[in-house]
Amino acid sequence: MKRLILTASALLASAAPLQPQTVAITNGIVALGDGSDPMPGGTVVIRNGRVVAAGSGVSVPANAEVIDANGKWVTPGIVAGFSRLGLSEVDLGADGSDDTETRNSPFSAAIDVAPAINPKASTIAVSRADGVTRAVVAPVAGRSIFAGQGAVIDTADDMDAVLRARAFQFVELGEGGADRAGGSRSAAFVLFRNALREARDLGGLRYPIAGRSSAARQADEVPYEERQDPQLLSRDARRTDDVMLTRFDAAALVPVVRGRQLLIVHVERAKDILNVLDLRREFPSLRIALVGATEGWTVADRIAESGVWVIASALNDLPASFEMLAATQSNVGRMRAAGVKVAIGMIDDNDTRYVRNQRQYAGNLVALGKIPGAAGVSWAEAFAMITSKPAEAVGLGGEIGSLARGRRGDVVIWSGDPLELASAPEAVWIDGVRQPLDNHQTKLRDRYRTLERGALPEAYRH
């Protein structure tokens, strides 16, 4: 057996990513990320980019590189439940570094964020260094309530960041949607319903042409968005004159009305939440997840009954707007107690850069459980809300977010409890590949920490 005992400093010193290999991390406090309690003295084995085994009593393969994590925590990587990671750099004005919002595009629902994601963005490297290995990335709504199609990405140090493109369609309702739809929530909801009807009508078109072969008739049953025949694609001219979407935008919504693509809707106010849930009366195939949901606790029973996921903003504890008058930091705990499926996200909360704050928010929810009258969650539940739960919310629970057998090998060794701010990652693997933890911030730190006074600019010498 090849045994390699690495200290914390040695773990931090690793630079170039390695190819996937067999790694056994032993003697750690292992948290699976599935809502179960951490296990002292556990082992995690990664082979060919996947988790082979994790927990107590796990055998170490004879050919494994063995890393002794005694006194450390070993967990799945953090999954940013809602973000704009990789779409924007630092704030430098209108310099082309911000691809979050399409303010003047003629398209809306058809927009796909995947081509705009920059795997080499400084924000991705910083997030990786704090244990974030995957992120749900959404566009910002521009002129329309439809922002476009979001993606799920990894934060690995390579150019292949997108795990799943067009993972969901993102829609802005509530105050933001009202503003984009003409000034009222009524306008936003009628615009939304009209768009879904256009997509439903478009997706239901059939072309019964006399004399067609059986193969051609079968082609009529192929989903609109999957057809390759130019003659069929051109037949959307048969749509009625009463249309508001471009043909690309309407086609992009066909998978949504058919339930093949997740619809993530931003709403905060309780009534807006109920309005969204009621949409399934008219469009029963919709797969919906709510993001934000500051007042979700007031209608938690209705949300739980619907079965939809909530990707909640965990730190909204003040009435920052009229749609957040019932804001409380107990929102997540109360929804969870009512049976709502909850993950943590960061919409409109420095979501381009500070997704690493999710673990602070999760830690706050644990602390709330110790305050009389407040509603928190257990450590295991809180950690699942930033690992396996976001993955499940976007339909990728079988791939990422936990250390269950067969999941992708996204593993972090922490210096201590990952929900404690004093803890930091000492090693990170993504898809079984060891990742560098250096970034722009660490390079600045290293440069100026030991810089001789004479090397400073003249203004700093006095």
Automatic annotation (TrEMBL):
GO MF annotations in UniProt: hydrolase activity, acting on carbon-nitrogen (but not peptide) bonds
Gene3D superfamilies noted in UniProt: Metal-dependent hydrolases, Urease, subunit C, domain 1
Residue ranges of every copy of the Amidohydrolase domain listed in the record: 330-433
Sorted UniProt keywords: Hydrolase, Signal
Family matches, as Pfam families: Amidohydro_3
InterPro entries linked: Amidohydro_3, Metal-dep_hydrolase_composite, Metal_Hydrolase, Metallo-dep_Hydrolase
Signal sequence range: 1-20
This protein's name: Amidohydrolase
Classification of source organism: Bacteria, Pseudomonadati, Pseudomonadota, Alphaproteobacteria, Sphingomonadales
